[in-house]
Design brief:
The chain is of the alpha+beta class. Helix content is 32%, strand content 28%. The chain has one domain. The chain has helices at residues 9-17, 51-56, 67-78, 95-104, 145-160, and strands at 3-5, 26-33, 37-41, 65-66, 86-92, 115-125, 128-137. Strands 1, 2, 3, 4, 5, 6 and 7 form a seven-stranded antiparallel sheet that branches. The longest helix has 16 residues, at 145-160. It is globular, with a radius of gyration of 17 Å.
Length: 166
């Protein structure tokens, strides 16, 4: 787990809300505080959709919404002349990208089905924006190789996207 303090908040917010930078992440949960606090549960309720819609939207293998699906609603709440009092989003790396990370990092001690989530917590509070990584496993292990690989991947991703951090 690492905590990164974002240096250029405006740049980060533009990438979060106006570009495709975070679109492939799953949104586990979120909250935005403006004149009210709005809570978002990213869990997909498949019984809301018809079978055709489930197939069309490729929801069969997903438990959570993609950020790109929820982002427009969040943008509506955040945009305007006043800065939100705060917000928090919990993003999760997709199963496919988790498997790619395990493979590319040469991690064989942890199987993909034992990874319940590689998370990125984005929090804005009191004028400070921070991103904290987390690793959730379905088993106990002292092996921290996946945690380190995830932390390194997030740092590389931020550098590639020109997101400056400390």
């Amino acid at each position: 787990m690492i905590a990164l303090q974002i240096q250029e908040i405006k740049n980060f917010m533009s990438k979060l809300l106006l570009s495709q930078t975070f679109d492939a992440f799953h949104l586990i949960e979120g909250s935005i505080t403006t004149y009210n606090t709005f809570h978002i549960d990213g869990r997909i309720h498949k019984d809301f959709f018809t079978e055709e819609e489930i197939e069309e939207r490729k929801l069969n293998d997903r438990e959570f919404s993609l950020w790109k699906e929820v982002k427009p609603f969040c943008l509506e709440l955040i945009k305007g002349k006043k800065t939100p009092l705060g917000f928090k989003f919990v993003f999760q790396l997709s199963k496919e990208n988790t498997e790619k990370l395990l493979t590319s990092s040469g991690i064989t001690s942890i199987r993909p089905e034992n990874v319940s989530g590689l998370l990125l917590n984005v929090r804005y509070d009191n004028g400070t924006l921070s991103c904290i990584t987390a690793t959730n496993l379905n088993l106990f292990t002292l092996d921290k190789s996946l945690e380190h690989a995830w932390d390194d991947m997030v740092k590389r991703f931020f550098k590639q996207q020109e997101i400056s951090f400390l």
